[in-house]
Automatic annotation (TrEMBL):
<protein>
    <recommendedName>
        <fullName>YtkA-like domain-containing protein</fullName>
    </recommendedName>
</protein>
<keyword id="KW-0732">Signal</keyword>
<dbReference type="InterPro" id="IPR032693">
    <property type="entry name" value="YtkA-like_dom"/>
</dbReference>
<dbReference type="Pfam" id="PF13115">
    <property type="entry name" value="YtkA"/>
</dbReference>
<feature type="domain" description="YtkA-like">
    <location>
        <begin position="34"/>
        <end position="108"/>
    </location>
</feature>
<feature type="signal peptide">
    <location>
        <begin position="1"/>
        <end position="19"/>
    </location>
</feature>
Length: 125
């Protein structure tokens, strides 16, 4: 039994002695939080009822254009109403406003774990 204990202790000393004691460090940039998304909505200042207009969103992350957002939604509602409708799009949306009013257009963008939204108004006369 003594021989077995000495053998075990010897192996333990050899294994501990062979390790260099250094832990592998992760590069600093993996600990850095991703840059925020920036959404710039591009709308006409005015439009006529029943006129088809193009709504678009320019999405960037830092200096880079985002072309791989997992989801982009345009939310369109009359300014004085609480309910609106969500319309999926990929950075642009052709939309026809039916009645004269001021509309709020909000764009929701998701990329990975990030979510950003921006809102602008358009007047339909």
């Amino acid at each position: 039994m003594k021989k077995l204990a000495i053998l075990f202790f010897s192996l333990l000393v050899i294994l501990v002695g062979c390790s260099n004691g250094k832990k592998e460090e992760k590069p600093a940039e993996t600990n850095k939080a991703p840059e925020m998304l920036n959404v710039e909505i591009q709308l006409p200042d005015q439009a006529e009822p029943n006129e088809k207009v193009t709504l678009s969103a320019k999405v960037t992350q830092g200096e880079e254009k985002v072309e791989d957002a997992s989801e982009v939604q345009f939310e369109i509602r009359k300014k004085r109403e609480d309910n609106g409708r969500m319309v999926n799009g990929k950075y642009t949306l052709a939309h026809t406003f039916i009645s004269p009013d001021t509309y709020n257009v909000k764009v929701h963008v998701e990329k990975g774990e990030l979510h950003e939204h921006q809102q602008e108004s358009v007047e339909i006369k």
